[in-house]
Write a structure and sequence with these properties.
alpha/beta, Rossmann fold, 5-stranded parallel beta sheet, globular
Length: 167
């Protein structure tokens, strides 16, 4: 079994690539206190010719992932070919999921994709410090809540955002 230390990020590649690139820039900048081991760094040279070939490569990324971050933009809920599939795979694997609202909302919104709507998911705003906080803390919380049979949406209260210097 591979060592799972990667963060798998799924997003609308047509509309939200800039947000994903910003996250990777934060991680690469030594002056930023933002770190994650990106699952997309695995098998970078993708064969995009056939859906099953792509999904095979994505499964390899999942095999090394400990967490799924979903960037929730205006169109994410409409995407069924890969983004919905990625969320479903993460759920089957029992990976903790963090839904990052690109509109700045701190909790579940109508833009939430149906695949994770009723699942055990942490919702946060697209802000560097709260995303890092969630990546550091949600996996352990998720596993504890899962053991208790809990489900549904979770979010951090305003005082956590204030504690992090946000808002």
């Amino acid at each position: 079994m591979p060592y799972r230390n990667k963060t798998y990020v799924c997003f609308d590649g047509d509309n939200d690539m800039g947000y994903y690139r910003l996250m990777t820039a934060w991680s690469e900048n030594e002056k930023q206190d933002f770190q994650f081991y990106n699952a997309h760094d695995l098998n970078v040279a993708r064969d995009s010719s056939q859906e099953e070939s792509i999904k095979k490569q994505l499964r390899e990324r999942f095999a090394n992932s400990k967490l799924l971050v979903v960037l929730v933009g205006n169109n994410t809920w409409r995407l069924t070919k890969f983004v919905k599939w990625e969320m479903e795979v993460a759920l089957k694997l029992g990976l903790p999921i963090i839904a990052v609202n690109l509109n700045g909302s701190k909790n579940k919104t109508p833009l939430c994709p149906s695949a994770i709507k009723d699942e055990l998911v942490m919702f946060v705003a697209f802000k560097q410090k709260i995303i890092q906080y969630a990546m550091d803390n949600w996996p352990a919380q998720h596993h504890a809540l899962k053991r208790e049979g809990k489900s549904g949406d979770y979010y951090y209260p305003d005082h956590v955002y204030k504690q992090l210097g946000l808002d």
